[in-house]
Structure formats: C-alpha cells, structure tokens
Design a protein that fits this description.
With 446 residues, the chain is mainly beta. It has two domains: 290 residues, Tachylectin-2, Chain A; 129 residues, Galactose-binding domain-like (Jelly Rolls). The chain is built from one helix and 30 strands. A hairpin with a 2-residue loop joins strand 17 and strand 18. The chain is elongated and about 70 Å long. Bound molecules: beta-L-arabinofuranose. Beta-L-arabinofuranose (FUB) binds next to strand 1 and strand 9.
C-alpha cells in the first residue's frame, strides 16, 4: 500500500502541502499516527484537526508509555476519499507559555468567525497544569499564530467550541467533569466564570466533549468509562448552556481495547459523520492512534442511532485505484484473515488472506464510472498458485473476471480480462476460486 499518485501530484500545489498517505477507508491517515479528530466544514471542504501521537523522541523525560504529542497537522478533503495533509500548523515550540518538555499538545478544535480561523488546543503550561491556548489564522490550514498566554480563567483539556445561530460562541472543555463558558466576541477570552455540567455521570467522564446543534436540539457528546474503557455517549438540551440530559450511547467500547475514543460529529453534503479514533496502526500500544470516520444517523425524534464502526469507512473508491480490500465491508467468515503486510511497518498497510475455497470479501461502493474497464489487476501472492474470482453486487453475482496467481513466494501483479463491467457504483466481491490459499494486497480495474 503506497501513497497513490493522486496524493503525490496534489502535494505539489503549494510549498506547505505534503503528500498524505490517506485513504477512503479506515483509518483515514496511514503515514503517521493521528488521534482526537475534530472535523469541520470550511470553504466547502472537510478539514480534520487531529492531535498527533509520536514515538517518544530521544531525551524524552515525560511519563513512560504515555501520550507524546508535539505538534498538529490539518488534513482536508472534498470527497472524503482523497485527503490532503497541509503539514504542521502549530508546534509546541511556537507557543511561549507551553512546557515543551511535556509533549502534551492534546485534542484540539478549530472554528471560523468574522474572517478568522481560531484553533483551540490544550497543553501543559510552564507554570504547571493543563491550560487552553488559541492560535489564529486567515486560512483553515494556517499559518496559525499562537496567542502569548493561555485563556485566562480556564484550566483543563480538550476544548470544543460551538458558535450558536445568534453568533454567540461557547467553549466546552474537561477536567474530570465537563465545563462550559461563553466566549467574548474576540474569541480569545471567556465571559464570567466557567460552569460545570453536574448532572452527567459522576465517574468516568474526564475528557473529550463535543457540542453541536440540530433542529433546535443541542447535543453534548462525550467519552465515558461506563465499564473498562471509554465509549461515546450523549446528552441533549434546548440550550447550549444546558442543563443536558443523558440520552444514550453513540459508539460502544472499541473491540480493540483502545482506552480512549475522542471524537467529533459533522454534517457534510447532507450526511452526518462521526470522526473518532482507534489503534489500527498500533495494536499493542493505544497511545499511538489512528483516526477514522463512519456514517451517523438520527431517528425522526432526534435520537442518535448507535454507530457501527467499520474498516470500510466513508469514502467512495474509484475502480481504477488500488482497492484495499483488507478494509472490507463484510467477509465469508473465519476463512478470511487480515494482517499487516510488513509486521515491522504498520504504515505499509494490510493484506487479506483467503484460506478456503469460496471464501470471500465484500468491499462496498466502488465507482466504475462509465464502466469502460476491461481488465483486472491484483497484487497477490500464492505459494502453490491460486485463482480469484471477481463478482459485483452479490457473492453469487455474475463473474466479471477470473485471475490466476502464479505459484511463488513473491508478490506479483496478476492480470486478467474483465467482462461486462457495468457503469456506476457497485459492491465488489473477491473470492478464492480454487483450493489454494491466496493473499491479496489490492485489486484494481483498468
Ligand atoms: O490525545 C490525548 C488525550 O487522549 C485527549 O486529549 C483525550 O481526549 C484522549 O483522547
């Protein structure tokens, strides 16, 4: 799984832009760890402001086996498939009040008001304790200029800002409980004392609030440790200042065991999305996380339906791209296994192992455009030689291609003719046709 060419081409647009090894599938960003994604719509695009987990650098003297975070990137996309990394927008060494030995640039947010972009971030201050700072820019991708001091009167982490319909801005943040304060029109200071929401769970609620409004209902969403790790819950109110009433669970605890689940929720082009994180790129260490997105739906009464986390994610995939079928929508079961392509480098992605005849993988929403493709390519490996069958829309749908993979220990690109490829968007089925095990990196149409 290499960065697709389109990312490398897009990277040349401006000096600040970088290629993003990023995909339509989950996780969204492959070439670095990302966490705590706040997604916003600015200038018609989705901008995601995550925090940035890194490995502890030489000389790091902070808490062992803990979060190590020194800067922020921002990523943008128009189609939720092609993500652009705009590079570093702020680093701890840029901020005069931050203790740079702490590497504690935790979960941020960004909002737009009166022509400026305001980036809110928590960090440990030289004077001790978590404080919340603001950096200001003319564009969503910076450059962001940090204010010389943190917001006065605020101690805590994980800022989230709501700008209400009347233009009033509210700052939400956590310090074992969730607080709210009105922001002054300059967006840099709070008005009065912060207020605590004291009718939410008393235990296990320590971070990551997010607030949005829909149809007159204010939704306060937050991670909560109801059992052993965080899950996402929400509460509703008719006012941004509360009181909020607990209303349900949005996302269950991660099956992976990732302890944290920081998130944000946004509507883009008529669809609601949940952005969150898991530890896809670091199964053994949950402080090196990776951001994800999945669709989120409401019932008619405004209830949020539980989100089912997927590997497939939300982006539509072009048939002509390297389709990462290891980010599948469904499989035939235990005969299909996914593992890292290179155990020493998770950033290289995954492979799918078909371990029995007729085992299959379904990958939803592949865009065949006008259906002009007449060939299939598969990057695959089959020790004893093997065969794959490609179908569309149903596991027993018509076969549009049958590909033989030669016997060998190396990855090869195997090719075959594609027949009767229809136009439009279809679910792809890849199945093992023979008895021999086949491993697949990606599938693509030509
Ligand atoms: O990423 C560091 C901290 O972990 C965040 O601020 C919390 O929300 C949790 O995700």
């Amino acid at each position: 799984m290499k960065p697709p060419l389109r990312h490398l081409l897009a990277a040349g647009v401006a000096g600040l832009l970088q290629s993003a090894s990023a995909f339509a599938t989950n996780p969204l960003i492959m070439d670095q760890f990302t966490a705590d994604p706040t997604a916003r719509v600015f200038q018609g695009k989705v901008y995601v402001y995550p925090s940035h987990d890194i490995k502890a650098p030489p000389g790091y003297k902070g808490k062992p086996n803990w979060f190590v975070m020194e800067d922020y990137h921002v990523f943008s996309s128009e189609n939720l498939t092609d993500w652009q990394d705009h590079g570093v927008i702020l680093k701890q060494t840029d901020v005069p009040w931050v203790d740079t030995s702490a590497y504690a640039m935790w979960a941020p947010d960004s909002v737009f008001k009166d022509g400026k972009y305001y980036f809110y971030f928590p960090a440990i201050a030289k004077t001790g304790g978590f404080r919340i700072g603001v950096a200001v820019a003319d564009q969503p991708y910076g450059p962001f200029k940090p204010m010389p001091t943190p917001i006065e009167g605020v101690q805590g982490i994980d800022p989230a800002v709501l700008i209400d319909k009347d233009g009033q801005a509210y700052l939400y943040y956590s310090l074992d409980r969730i607080f709210v304060a009105r922001l002054k029109p300059d967006m840099l200071q709070i008005e009065g004392e912060p207020v605590v929401f004291d009718n939410l769970p008393k235990k296990g609620l320590q971070e990551g609030p997010f607030v949005f409004e829909r149809n007159g209902i204010y939704y306060l969403t937050y991670p909560h440790v109801a059992n052993k790790t965080e899950r996402l819950e929400y509460a509703t109110s008719t006012s941004p200042m509360g009181p909020f009433t607990a209303a349900g669970v949005i996302l269950d605890e991660a099956e992976s065991g990732c302890w944290t689940v920081h998130h944000s929720i946004l509507e883009y082009q008529g669809q609601w999305y949940l952005f969150y994180h898991d530890k896809d790129l670091s199964p053994a260490f949950d402080k090196n996380r990776a951001i994800r997105a999945d669709r989120l739906f409401f019932d008619a009464d405004g209830t949020i339906r539980r989100v089912i986390p997927t590997l497939r994610g939300v982006g539509r995939v072009a048939a002509k791209s390297e389709i990462q079928i290891d980010r599948y929508s469904a499989t035939s079961g235990t005969d299909v296994a996914v593992s890292f392509l290179d155990e020493t480098n998770p950033h290289a992605g995954w492979k799918t192992r078909f371990g029995a005849a007729q085992s299959w993988v379904r990958f939803n929403e592949v865009d065949f455009g006008r259906g002009a493709q007449n060939a299939i390519e598969v990057r695959a490996k089959a020790l004893g030689g093997g065969t794959l069958e490609i179908r569309l829309d149903r596991a027993d749908g018509p076969v549009i291609g049958r590909i033989d993979v030669g016997a060998g220990t190396d990855w090869v690109i195997a090719r075959a003719a594609a027949h009767r490829v229809p136009a439009g968007v279809h679910d792809l089925f890849v199945a093992q046709a023979g008895v021999e095990t086949v491993e697949v990196d990606w599938v693509r149409f030509r």
